[in-house]
Amino acid sequence: MSDIHIRVSGKAGHITLNRPDALNALTYDMVHAIDSALRAWAHDPEIALVIIDALGEKAFCAGGDIAQLYETGRAGDFSYGQGFWRDEYRLNARLAGYSKPIVSFLQGFTMGGGVGIGCHASHRIVGESSRIAMPECGIGLVPDVGGSLLLAHAPGRLGEYFGLTTTRMGPGDAILSGFADHFIPQSEWDGLKVALCETGQLASLMSAVKEAPVAEIIEHMAMIETCFCGESLDDICRNLQNDGSDFALKALSAIKRNSPIAMAVAVEMIHRLRSTTDIKRALELEYRFTYRAMEHGDFLEGIRAAIIDKDRTPKWKHTLDKVPAVDVSFMLRPLGKDKLTFEEESTAMKIGFIGLGNMGGPMAANLAAAGHVVTGFDVAGTTADGVQNVSSAVEAANGADVVITMLPNGAILRSVANEVIPAMGKNAVLLDCSTVDVESARAVAEQCAKAGVLSLDAPVSGGIGGASAGTLTFMVGGTDEGYTKALPLFEIMGQKSVHCGASGNGQAAKICNNMILGATMIATCESFALADKLGLDRQKMFDVVSTSSGYSWSMNAYCPAPGVGPESPADNDYKPGFAAELMLKDLRLSQEAAIAVKADTPMGAMAQALYAQFVEDEDGLGKDFSAMLPKFEKSERP
Predict the structure, then answer these.
(1) Enoyl-CoA hydratase/isomerase domain: from which residue to which, for each copy (predicted)?
(2) Could you tell me if 60 and 171 lie in one domain?
């Protein structure tokens, strides 16, 4: 008997998974069969809707059939798995964006690949036996098949909880978390399918919907919101340990069984995907990991321990408390020519990149690696991987769909804009990623508008490491049309972009953000210096503050004390991730803006004065902005 039964029943296309003895695990052939059927039915006027169900009581689909993935991977052939995931993810995208209603009936286990088949349907039905989960981290993968997007948009921090602990959701939990839509008693399913096939209408389905069982997870939502809110896997584990409740310690115990690198990447993915509802963005991000999972991740070891040898003692590549940020970034770097693509995607953009310094160079390289045609110019003659260098800014701008600038200040931006805007075509985008004064950003935007060019000011946060890893945050000012056109580029160069409104608002957001950052870093450094003089151990201080009301990015993610917290420039002799002189520049911009609009910012002014003293009169030039800590260690109150 075939593994899958595909037919037309009345006015419905009907797909039934038919491997009950294997919990309806999804094979590569089944992926192709489902995809072919959906293609054919999309344009068939006789087909009003699609039904997807499965035989057997135990499972709708308990995941992908990983036997051949393991065998080929162990033999050093990674192409089979890469091809499987590529085609599976394309099917997931087709299901999510299908032009006709799809009704999925999710009895028993729906896990992993089953989520990709059943949980992107337009009408997802659960019953009494339904148990939905994303268990991938337990075998060295990340939540994939578009499940990362569902987790990212689950209420509160449920996404991090279900993704890291791999906990199974009952019907109420699944509806609450966005993995299902409706509860209908399973005794009614067969009759509903008959009615759907006969009528091609959803009325009978909707009239059968009953009140779902109470979501069991609700009673733990407050704890989950508190403990799973960390920036990193390490934060979350520390929060759970400090909480100490039975539920928290049970969650921590579940986490300790799973692949550390997979969980750390899963947290990063969930955070990135909160800013989008585009499943293709999620699938492309997932594919970056799964493409590398056999060669560089824990996937093969995870399958060995769970499925092959069944010893349940995997030897993961990392320990839970030591997953370097660089390893997380590596697993999510763009794949260049191997990027996951979808049929309807347009061809690569032509991009001119002006300013290939410490930030601009890696940003341009990431765009080239993602398949875009990038020409670059820098007055210093610097180059970037994959970027074709030209002899002038005008040459880089000629014929470009998007011109990106990363420049030192507003005066240079205005000068470059005078050169390149006349060379740009109508509706091309001038995307300035420099940090400059608001007035310069708005002047360039006005100049662009007169020439029919779309202008965006999009300063970045994330430093040199974020530029290399493609994890920058963009604060964007400009028109909706320009932002929409540039969005695919933001998603390559960064983890998040926020459209802040009209031209100049991106710069306004950046200087406000960095005024906060400068002041909080000073306070954090002062506090460590005070703790030293009071005889308080730095690690103990970190353990308290990082989980208390003193929590901040400066403490938790970028701790200025060497050997404390996640790895940061403090652990590398304060080699700059974000140089102190750049912080001084941003603080000066904030105070110039404050004076212009008569805003009272005494803390910002004091932070500017302290960084000016540090950079210009002391030894701060060329050091990270967190090197304020050694300054305060040496100084004493008069």
Answers:
(1) 13-328
(2) yes
